[in-house]
Amino acid sequence: MLQEKTIAVIKATIPVLEVHGEAITRRFYERLFEAHPELLNVFNINNQRQGRQQAALANAVYAAAVHIEKLDAIIPVVKQIGAKHRSLGVLPEHYPIVGEHLLGAMRDVLQESATDEIIAAWAEAYGIIAQAFIDVEKEMYEEAVKQPGGWEGLRSFRIARRVKESDVIDSFYLEPLDQKPIASYQPGQYLTLQLKAPGVDYAQMRHYSLSDSPNKSYYRISVKREDERDATPGGLISRYIHSLAVGDTVEVAAPAGEFIIEENNHPLTLLSGGVGMTPFMSYLNTAAERLSNRSIVWIHAALNGDVHAFADESNQLAQRLANLTKRVVYERPTARDEQEKRFDAKGYITADVLREAGFRPDGLFYICGPESFMRAMYRLLTQLGVKEKNISFEFFGPASSIEAQAVAN
């Protein structure tokens, strides 16, 4: 428990964090990588370059300050981030390193405003928050190892099969080199791959949703190739994965993730954009195998049919699941899309599209796709009266506040 004096000091720093939060986190990462360049193996280079990791950490520090009187409020976020930490190999000994450089960054940026009292208060708070992460992650590490087919750290897998799903998305079927059983998972979870692309000094870790039902002899992930376009650089690692062939090996951490789409009797609506359909493919394949009679609405948005992955497989799922209502929305359909009537609506997912598909505001809603897509869907659902507690979302950039950004935009 934090002392009352500590709480008061930290709450007094909230206005400062609003102004200087990102400057502090930028300086933090500079200090961290200068002292410990080996940790570049853990962090996404693109997110660092684009400032997304710095902004996300600033949001997390700000949230900790706002909820400092009741840190239990951030436990769901701790579990979500903790799952990614476990898959990345973050260990208890890393937390003192992070604490040292975060406090050092506060001193560097705030200078004389960072009094000994403020630094001491944040040191005390950081110790409690870090311990919450360590405790949650300890359980996750133990679960990953002890489950049937589980393992510790990284395990070598062979690309056994590769399937082109669209112009930009390929599926990779991964089988363990040791030919031993592999851990099961829950629909919505992901694999973490460690990859060393040519010309890059450090290995990179990336998360990819599992896109098939569990309890098979392989894992399937489906990866979008992020090409360079306009002024936006391409995805270094996604392009590297697309250069791999059948027979190549990759290093893989055991399945993880808190975006779990559980089977129950609540009406379910799945909203996906682009490659964000992958966790829903896992769920729907699982539901079809279990002969689920749950009421499900699935609305998928894509640019057009050329980049729409799993079109045939999703149509087959719709035939197998009698209570599945599936709708496809293309932003800019091609002439072929128009001719073959490969979509149900043109433009974007709107309130009318939701209502036509059987919108139930009292149901459960899961969103996955680009961050801008999720902000738009979150805003739309809340405007239509859906309670925030009934909306779940997943994306693989740094942790961000989809809710706050949706309201602001």
TrEMBL record:
Its EC number is 1.14.12.17. GO terms for biological process: cellular response to nitrosative stress; nitric oxide catabolic process; response to toxic substance. Its cofactor is FAD; heme b. Binds 1 FAD per subunit. Binds 1 heme b (iron(II)-protoporphyrin IX) group per subunit. It holds the Pfam family NAD_binding_1. The active site is at Y95, E137. Heme b binds at H85. Keywords: Detoxification, FAD, Flavoprotein, Heme, Iron, Metal-binding, NAD, NADP, Oxidoreductase, Oxygen transport, Transport. Residues 152-262 form the FAD-binding FR-type domain. Residues 1-138 form the Globin domain. It catalyses: 2 nitric oxide + NADPH + 2 O2 = 2 nitrate + NADP(+) + H(+); 2 nitric oxide + NADH + 2 O2 = 2 nitrate + NAD(+) + H(+). Residues 149-409 are annotated as: Reductase. One of its GO terms (molecular function) is nitric oxide dioxygenase NAD(P)H activity. The keyword Ribonucleoprotein does not apply. The record marks K84, E394 as: Influences the redox potential of the prosthetic heme and FAD groups. The record marks Y29 as: Involved in heme-bound ligand stabilization and O-O bond activation. FAD binds at Y190, F395, F396, G397, P398. Consists of two distinct domains; an N-terminal heme-containing oxygen-binding domain and a C-terminal reductase domain with binding sites for FAD and NAD(P)H. Belongs to the globin family. Two-domain flavohemoproteins subfamily. NCBIfam families: PRK13289.1. Is involved in NO detoxification in an aerobic process, termed nitric oxide dioxygenase (NOD) reaction that utilizes O(2) and NAD(P)H to convert NO to nitrate, which protects the bacterium from various noxious nitrogen compounds. Therefore, plays a central role in the inducible response to nitrosative stress. This is Flavohemoprotein.
